[in-house]
């Protein structure tokens, strides 16, 4: 038996443990949809999959509570499939293996899926609870949030009946989120014809061991971006050693700071030693620049078989210059919330191989005008390299409502249970609340959750001590929902 099943509250941990056994990486929702429908049938609540692929559960009000406002508990079913370089885990077939270390639940060298498996487990726990006294409750578990919020974007109008939306996808206990940034995917591509390789040697350069992390929640922590650090080395090798680019692969998730990048460079044999020395110097430079942040930097070379073809010189230079010049990180903070990032971009993925370059960026902002600004800034950069830029998966920001009735009830209940005031904040991470509000503007919305750290990385972890107070707050709040 998994050791997390012995933790309290039992309902939350048991359901989360069951969920860890169901493969659910973004883009592969069939198994978890079936799991959730089977769960609903077993506990006797209505459930179905809507036309967008979301699972919707409905639990009627307890006797005498029929006139309470309806509550929608909302989470997403997918998880980010990240793993350590030496892990052989297959996210489409293998269960997540959990362990407890120093008061935290981790997975074994993979993402844990607490983002947002804990939200799903909480909804399951509420749906099966026969003792809870409550008004009408709906559980909305959305599809493919991590890859573009597709479930929320395609949520049909007229599907939900509730008055209050409690999103369970925030990651710091004791903080209630009442606003979040919007975002947009930026994809720049260029097709070209490779040229024969006339160089004498080939070297593969790998940068790995960086922290990576969530490109919204952790973009302000000064973590190194593997693509941005690699381009410094590549440009220097091209300019000083006449190296030629054959291949580049960096990053694998649009919403994660890339922790690894690798390139293959072709060059003259008598320049190989100089390139190896250059990489070692660059490793030392990265360690020095990020010495309080990045503690496991690996930057190294391997001699490899000569590639058959190279990126043409002019295309190569344009791509390198564009990657070097494109903005990555914070653009600016919110003037009225100076501790919160307003606008940012994350150079998430660079793929240059087999006659095509493909660059993916996720830009975020809580202001639509600033989102447009950073999109045009990045598009201008890639336009100069002759690339074609497409925009997709755009979603707006969530405007805060500090006078929210559900927020005030949560704050009151939190203080009664914990003897201190909760913190109310606006997040830079994207939440589905803004999209759902666009379809159901009458909803009173807040986001909450227990403490999760390093989501979207293989060191994702969930703080055990925050589980019970989170659960107690959820139960007490549902019991106290006011009448219509």
TrEMBL record:
Query: Which cofactor does the UniProt annotation name?
Result: Co(2+); Zn(2+)
GO MF entry, a single one: metal ion binding
Q: Which keywords describe this protein according to UniProt?
A: Cobalt, Coiled coil, Hydrolase, Metal-binding, Metalloprotease, Protease, Zinc
Domain Peptidase M20 dimerisation positions: 206-292
Query: What EC identifiers does the entry list?
Result: 3.4.13.18
Pfam families this protein is in? M20_dimer, Peptidase_M20
Where would one find coiled-coil regions in this protein? 265-303
InterPro entries, from UniProt? Peptidase_M20, Peptidase_M20_dimer, Peptidase_M20C
May I ask which residue range the UniProt record assigns to the signal sequence? none
What is the catalytic activity of this protein? Hydrolysis of dipeptides, preferentially hydrophobic dipeptides including prolyl amino acids
One GO cellular component term noted in the UniProt record for this chain: cytosol
Q: Which GO terms describe its biological process?
A: proteolysis
Q: Does the keyword Cytoplasm apply?
A: no
Under the heading NCBIfam families, the entry gives: aa-his-dipept
**Protein family membership:** Belongs to the peptidase M20C family.
Q: What is this protein called?
A: Cytosol non-specific dipeptidase
What is the organism field in this record?
Answer: Prevotella brunnea
Q: What is the lineage of its organism?
A: Bacteria, Pseudomonadati, Bacteroidota, Bacteroidia, Bacteroidales
């Amino acid at each position: 038996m998994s050791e997390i099943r012995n933790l309290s509250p039992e309902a939350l941990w048991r359901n989360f443990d069951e969920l860890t056994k169901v493969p659910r990486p973004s883009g592969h929702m069939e198994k978890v949809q079936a799991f959730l429908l089977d769960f609903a049938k077993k506990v006797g609540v209505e459930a179905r999959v809507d036309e967008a692929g979301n699972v919707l559960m409905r639990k009627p009000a307890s006797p005498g509570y029929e006139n309470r406002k309806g509550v929608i508990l909302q989470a997403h079913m997918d998880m980010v499939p990240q793993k350590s370089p030496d892990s052989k885990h297959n996210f489409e077939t293998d269960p997540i293996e959990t362990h407890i270390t120093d008061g935290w639940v981790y997975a074994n060298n993979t993402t844990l899926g607490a983002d947002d498996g804990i939200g799903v487990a909480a909804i399951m726990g509420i749906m099966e609870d026969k003792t809870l006294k409550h008004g009408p409750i709906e559980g909305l578990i959305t599809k493919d949030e991590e890859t573009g919020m597709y479930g929320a974007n395609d949520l049909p109008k007229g599907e939900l009946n509730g008055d209050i939306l409690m999103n369970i996808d925030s990651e710091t206990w004791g903080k209630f989120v009442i606003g979040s940034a919007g975002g947009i995917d930026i994809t720049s591509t260029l097709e070209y014809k490779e040229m024969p390789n006339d160089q004498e040697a080939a070297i593969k350069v790998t940068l790995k061991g960086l922290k990576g992390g969530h490109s919204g929640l952790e973009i302000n922590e000064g973590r190194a971006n593997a693509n941005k650090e690699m381009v410094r080395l590549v440009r220097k090798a091209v300019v000083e050693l006449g190296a030629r680019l054959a291949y580049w692969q960096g990053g694998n998730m649009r919403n994660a700071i890339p922790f690894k990048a690798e390139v293959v460079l072709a060059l003259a044999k008598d320049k190989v030693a100089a390139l190896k020395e250059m990489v070692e110097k660059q490793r030392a430079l990265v360690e020095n620049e990020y010495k309080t942040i990045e503690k496991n930097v690996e930057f190294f070379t391997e001699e490899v078989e000569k590639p058959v073809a190279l990126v043409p010189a002019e295309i190569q230079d344009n791509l390198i210059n564009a990657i070097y010049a494109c903005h990555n990180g914070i653009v600016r903070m919110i003037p009225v919330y100076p501790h919160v990032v307003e606008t940012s971009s994350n150079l998430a993925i660079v793929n240059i191989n087999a006659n095509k370059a493909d660059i993916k960026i996720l830009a975020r902002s809580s202001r639509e005008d600033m989102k447009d600004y950073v999109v045009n800034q990045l598009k201008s950069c890639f336009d100069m390299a002759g690339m074609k830029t497409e925009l997709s998966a755009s979603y707006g920001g969530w405007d805060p409502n500090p006078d929210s009735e559900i927020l005030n009830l949560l704050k009151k209940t939190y203080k009664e249970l914990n003897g201190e005031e909760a913190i109310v904040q606006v997040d830079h991470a994207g939440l589905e609340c803004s999209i759902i509000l666009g379809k159901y503007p009458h909803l009173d919305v807040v986001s909450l959750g227990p403490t999760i750290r390093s989501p979207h990385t293989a060191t994702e972890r969930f703080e055990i001590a925050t589980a019970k107070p989170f659960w107690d707050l959820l139960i007490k709040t549902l019991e106290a929902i006011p009448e219509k």
